[in-house]
Amino acid sequence: MPDTLTIIDNRTGKQYELSIANDTIKAMDLRQIKVNENDFGLMTYDPAFMNTASCKSMITFIDGEKGILRYRGYPIEHLAEKSNYLETAYLILYGELPNKPQYEEWVHNITYHTLIHENIKKLMDGFHYDAHPMGMLISTVAALSTFYNDAKEIHNPESRKKQTYRLIGKMPTIAAFAFRHSVGRPYVYPDNALSYTANLMSMLWKMTETQFQAHPALVKALDVLFILHADHEQNCSANAMRSIGSSHVDPYAAIAGAAAALYGPLHGGANEAVLRMLDEIGTKDNVPSFIKGVKSGSGRLMGFGHRVYKNYDPRAKVIKQLADEVFEVTGRNPKLDIALELERIALEDEYFVKRKLYPNVDFYSGLIYQAMGFPVEMFPVLFSIPRTAGWIAQWEEMLLDSDQKIARPRQVYLGSGMRDYVVMSKRK
Ligand code: SDX
Known about the structure:
globular, 6 strands, single chain, three-stranded antiparallel beta sheet
């Protein structure tokens, strides 16, 4: 049988053959379907892109029904167990696991781009004392575009590589400076003798000691969390990155836009919203009444549900196991009991089962971050740091894809027809 779709337009009786490739038809092939010759032709109407592929990609594969997540073909469970964040970032960006010289050069280049211009400190000092760190991160990343004019050379691979080093190297520094500003502590400069995540912890927590000694189990846990958050195909913030990047703006401005999308409570802001929800519930005994409220439409079970996963988010499984290792060091987060009870009840309740709502990556991650001492406001910031690699990879793939051009969707116009201007004296 041919890979085609036969469409009969019952308005005209005309028949059309559309080719099928990769289980899709080309939307532009619908434009030939008209009633009158000067019609615009058919489009699809797909708010929130529920069933629209905006691009071809070779970076991340998700099977929502089976709960599968792979970066460049490698299962997330293998990478979480055997890799580290910088190696996984290299894989996501360049398509292959690095060999030893490649890895060492990559780590060196990231490590030597962790410092930020001293004027950035002055910019961050301008924020209110209780500014949300995510708002500070978004603004500061956008400001980086004013320091690196070479970033506008987006078609120069060497320039893209240099901005990649700078972005992956500086996001932890900006994140840590935002945190230190919000708690009124002096900024701690990067310590290039430390690993990527140990250095972040040093910039966050170091006080007067000469070198910060992070607990190795917590460094490892944060690194695994970063692996799990590194990319997730065409999520809301990746779509923002591609759309903004398609105008050929520099990658700093595009990343600021992607981070802004991630900030929303339906996306990367969900991990912060989960902890606020657990605080609102207060005790295990209040879970049934809270669930009842959700089912009656009073709000959402934050950390549950996913556009793609209609099964358990594989990242949530890994995070749940990681929680036990972290709590051995930090002490158990008492909110875990409320979270486990929420999960237990929800997974048995028809309302959630029918809607295929399972815990997603954000349901347990906040419990670990909180146990590690992070305030809830830092949670979306801790999501942005690792996702920077994914955003850059999606951006670069879009730039190099000959199918792509500036993103500019169509619309279905249902507004007023043509009407003449009415002078003030004649208005109702
Ligand atoms: C991330 O896309 C990605 O890959 C994102 C991400 C990534 O790595 O980049 O995985 C990270 O953003 C994870 C998701 C974090 N967000 C949350 O935990 C917020 C709570 N979840 C939801 O708001 C919701 O599930 C979404 C936004 C995640 C998905 O929304 P969809 O696919 O648009 O689903 P929907 O809103 O159309 O809901 C379908 C039904 C609705 O009920 P009915 O209209 O059929 O009666 O399910 C209900 C919704 O009301 N529903 C929920 C619910 N999520 C959906 N009801 C209660 N609690 C929820 N959490």
